[in-house]
Design goal:
This protein is mainly beta. It is built from 11 helices and 52 strands. The strands form 12 sheets. The protein has a 22-stranded antiparallel barrel. A hairpin with a 4-residue loop joins strand 50 (887-897) and strand 51. The longest helix has 9 residues, at 644-652. Mean pLDDT is 89; it is low at 1-25.
């Protein structure tokens, strides 16, 4: 096992609790107990000392520091995500996605959401003894989800006395403050042990407007780009087509009505009913637009409270009872700018200023409008309550002159999540407030008496900031609540031991069965679900499945103590899984380990794997989503701009000549990065989905030369192929399939208006295409000979990504994306951590360098930030690539062990205040806030911590 972990500086005497632990060990990735199978698979270990050296207090952030980890589908930087998973921390191994990374706690599954995500923030760092990461497939041992790898969180199971630990940290700009406190108490006797713990964590949000890096939607290089709909009222001329001065005819023959914005000198607005107080709206002028980053959180804030307990009781010398329980509550708050309200926000019924409304500048006409409600930022509060309890028995016995171990465990996990969102608009009340008015006692009032009695107040939507009284906001504002519940009941039984003695050693076997029941439900706010508010609409979810599984594993020694064969052994395992949702599946894994001599171990694995569709994949109701994309029919930046064949297909599909895609503000897109669609698309589940399947291959070595004491080197090759990928078919892909690949089966998934604008699009899930990743892991660990200046240890862990290929559908051209920023995560060719640790008497220090290689990004335009204009962009299909350089972040921690059992630590992460490149392909939903990579440090981060043992 590649133990690239921190150095343990002090060993304590064994306590009675330590005597309760089994003599041999269970290795992550195998159910066979024994220390000699540890190194058969590539396992990375991070111990408590290495965890503390990061200065981080959230387990998700700690795992994300590993070079083999990518950016998860949802990050704290993703403030536009509207689901109940937003605010959590998730792990993503091999850039294959958090849903393909299995998370275990003490070898047992932790609770997951409807979407199959495991929130690592619900596991407090204070109880973690070490983290083991298996970096190959393990479905034959653990079942579904173990495609990218397995993260096994090992909690403290031996503790005597009490410990209190506090930490305070703050970003260099004074925000993002983190406060963390934990208390652990343990007691042991000869037969029993008990540990209780409590943790509190409070992390403040980072705001976009706090720093120049995030103050503008597209960063400091383009401070005037990306502005959205403005806060001052705008109207569309409602007079009939052909009316003089009301608009003009486009070359394609469609009528373009004039648009106007109310004058607002010095922020003051005059009479909105008088068209003389308006000026023409210029979509390319920021004077009437708005930088939404002024009101947004860059990274959400959160609070975590957790109670933890574990116990063990030896009934006899051979049988023990054990149990664990954890209850955690996470609160997350994020904020985005006020809603971009416009007539199309009213969905199929529309939303307009009534012809008889006193504030209408076109009396007698139903007038369309547009205006961002900046006075009412959208704020989301997410709460997640996670409960996990497991209990069981384990023991040992002798059979066939060999030791055998058994265990039986029942585990129950439940997560109750809710999300409260304010700042949206009640469309029913908004229609009434924009409806006909009358004058009562000299004041404008809603004309309908029943509406007035129900609280209707006329809304001068065109008045701009400060022009809407609180009474109106109270009437038209909407606050919604959505709830999600997931439950897992899991029963697992395992048996392992020696079967018979062979000339090269003992043939050992492990086997077991598992019965797991998963169920989940999602209850959207009733008004949102009915489309009565501006919140993204979604339908309820209620469903689940039952999995019954059985496995066998054999470890067979073939040769031993021979020339060039100090050890040769194979490990084979197979697991049959039957799901009530789709049927049966068998997965097998083979591993080989060969020691030609004592200093060198060679290893290889071949593993079949699968990922079952989640409850959400199978049973989730359809929901709305806003997406950023480039329409291939756009005449300036789409494929039609340079490909006559695509242009002809667009024309045949009814797209007008010279069509330009417009973003949410109504402006034409200004770069190959595209824009966000003004209307919501739909995405949904598919009950006919089948599992994803995978093949994982690894080969590597572990070299520990006897002539260099303290040196360990690991080198591993990996290759993962996934087929039948479960994915929503994104808007950009659907349009490209239709027009670029000329596949008519996709053209029915969307509808265009006569102007060419896409007004409807279906992104429902499907088993589509394939994914491949391939690369190398290199680890080096060297403990220098002890000197009079102290002990030094050098740790290095690196990953090289040689291939990352996506095929969107059968027959499609593969996209080779290694080295690209792909919108959700950076597919770095090289990620590397280098750490130097020093300890001397009671003092210690750790210096860590974290390196990210450069990435390819979309060009801003053909002649701006486009250093490879002739190169084809594998991600977008367009011509032009912007290659941006790598970045390294440096961390320093100093520590002192006080003579009264206290421990001080102080540190600075990103000590030189480095900032990474800006990537315009960073997604605004799922990845984070463009243009900054969510994997990068934002500022320096200072922290100080103290631990006291009693």
């Amino acid at each position: 096992m590649a133990a690239m972990s921190g150095v343990v500086h002090a060993q304590e005497a064994a306590s009675p609790a330590q005597m309760l632990a089994p003599v041999n060990v269970t290795v992550t990735g195998s159910r066979i107990r024994g220390t000699d199978v540890e190194t058969a698979q590539p396992v990375f270990t991070m111990d408590r000392q290495a965890i503390r050296a990061t200065g981080l207090t959230n387990l998700g952030d700690i795992v994300a520091r590993m070079p083999s980890a990518g950016t998860a589908e949802i990050t704290p930087q993703d403030t536009l995500s509207s689901g109940t998973d937003a605010g959590g921390r998730y792990a993503n191994l091999r850039q294959l996605g958090a849903v393909r990374t299995l998370v275990l706690v003490n070898g047992r599954r932790w609770t997951t959401s409807l979407g199959g995500l495991t929130d690592l923030s619900t596991i407090p760092v204070a109880i973690v003894e070490r983290i083991e990461v298996l970096k190959d497939g393990a479905s034959s041992i653990y079942g579904s989800d173990a495609i990218g790898g397995v993260i096994n969180i090992l909690t403290t199971d031996r503790f005597e006395g009490a410990s209190a630990d506090v930490l305070y940290g703050v970003n260099g700009h004074g925000d993002g403050t983190q406060k963390n406190g934990s208390f652990t108490w343990g007691k042991s006797t000869e037969r029993a042990s008990l540990i209780l713990g409590a943790t509190y964590e409070d992390a403040d949000a980072l705001r976009d407007d706090k720093r120049a890096l995030t103050r503008s939607p597209y960063g400091p290089r383009h401070p005037d780009a990306g502005f959205g709909m403005g806060p001052y009222g705008g109207v569309v001329d409602p007079r009939p087509a052909g009316t003089p001065a009301a608009g003009s005819y486009a070359p394609g023959g469609t009528w373009d009505a004039n648009r106007y914005v109310v004058n607002h000198p010095g922020g003051m607005v005059g009479d909105t009913a008088d068209l003389a107080n308006y000026h023409p709206y210029d979509v390319n002028d920021n004077a009437d637009k708005y930088a939404t980053t002024q009101d947004m959180t860059f990274r959400s804030g959160s609070k975590l409270r957790n109670l933890f307990g574990t116990g063990r009781y030896n009934l006899t010398d051979d049988v023990a009872l054990r149990g664990m329980a954890s209850y955690g509550v996470r609160d997350t708050r994020s904020q985005s700018a006020g809603y971009p309200l416009q007539s199309s926000s009213g969905r199929s019924d529309g939303l307009s200023i009534d012809p008889d409304n006193a504030y209408n500048p076109f009396p007698g006409y139903a007038t369309s409008f547009f205006r961002r409600t900046t006075e009412l930022p959208r704020v989301s509060w997410a709460k997640s309550k996670t409960f996990h309890a497991d209990g069981g028995a384990e023991g040992s016995f002798q059979w066939l002159d060999h030791a055998w171990n058994w265990d039986l465990t029942y585990a129950y996990s439940e997560t109750r999540a809710s999300r409260v969102t304010s700042g949206n608009i009640d469309l029913v009340n908004a229609r009434k407030a924009l409806g006909p008015t009358t004058v009562i006692d000299g004041r404008v009032a809603c004309a309908d008496a029943a509406d007035r009695a129900a609280g209707c107040v006329p809304w001068n939507i065109l008045a701009g900031p400060g022009g809407t009284p609180d009474a109106v906001w109270n009437y038209v504002a909407s606050t919604s609540t959505a709830r999600q519940t997931t439950r897992t009941n899991d029963v697992v039984a395992n048996l392992t031991g020696g079967l018979l003695d062979l000339p090269a050693g003992t043939l050992r076997v492990a086997g077991g069965v598992e019965h797991r029941r998963e169920h989940g439900r999602y209850e959207p706010d009733a008004a949102d679900s009915a489309g009565l508010t501006t919140q993204l609409a979604s339908d309820p979810t209620d469903g689940g499945y039952i999995a019954n599984e059985a496995y066998l594993e054999f470890d067979v020694p073939l040769l031993a103590d021979l020339p060039l064969a100090r050890e040769v052994a194979v490990n084979a395992s197979t697991r049959y899984s039957h799901y009530s949702a789709f049927g049966g599946r068998t997965n097998t894994k083979y591993s080989l380990r060969w020691k030609p001599f004592d200093d060198l171990l060679l290893r290889a694995t071949y593993a079949e794997g699968f990922r079952a569709p989640t409850v959400a994949d199978l049973y989730a109701g359809s929901s709305e989503t806003f997406e950023s994309f480039v329409d291939p029919c756009d005449s300036a930046y789409g494929a039609a701009a340079s490909d006559a064949t695509v242009r002809a297909r667009c024309t045949a599909g009814g797209v007008p000549a010279g069509y330009r895609q417009v973003d949410q503000s109504g402006a034409q897109i200004a770069s190959a990065t595209g824009g966000q669609n003004p209307v919501a698309f739909r995405t949904g589940a598919n009950p006919l989905l089948k599992p994803e399947t995978s093949i994982t291959r690894t080969a590597g070595l572990v070299y520990s030369p006897s002539y260099i004491e303290g040196l360990d080197v690991t080198l591993d090759y990996y290759k993962v192929d996934i087929r039948d990928v479960i994915t929503p078919i994104l808007a950009g892909d659907i349009l490209n399939f239709c027009y670029v690949r000329n596949d008519p089966t996709w053209c029915g998934r969307f509808t265009r208006a006569a102007s060419g604008e896409i007004v409807q699009l279906d992104e429902s899930l499907a088993n589509l295409g394939s994914l491949r990743t391939e690369g190398y892991d290199l680890g080096m660990h060297y403990r220098f000979p002890e000197t009079r200046l102290g002990e030094f240890t050098l740790l290095s862990d690196s990953t090289y990504l040689s291939d990352y290929t996506q095929v969107s559908s059968p027959g499609a051209a593969p996209r080779h994306l290694a080295g690209y920023m792909n919108g959700v995560q950076g597919l770095y060719r090289v990620r590397s951590n280098l750490s130097l640790d020093w300890s001397w008497r009671r003092f210690g220090a750790t210096w860590t360098t974290r390196f990210f290689s450069g990435l390819k990004d979309a060009c801003w335009s053909a002649d701006v930030e486009c250093n490879r204009p002739a190169e084809s962009n594998a991600l977008t299909g367009a011509t032009g690539v912007s290659r941006k350089g790598g970045v390294a972040f440096h961390d320093l921690q100093l520590r002192w062990q006080a003579p009264w059992n206290g421990n001080f630590r102080v540190g600075v992460n990103n000590i030189f205040g480095r900032r990474g490149p800006l990537y315009y392909n960073v997604s605004s939903a799922g990845g984070g806030s463009p243009p900054y990579d969510p994997a990068f440090d934002v500022d320096r981060y200072y922290y100080v911590g103290y631990q006291q043992r009693f």
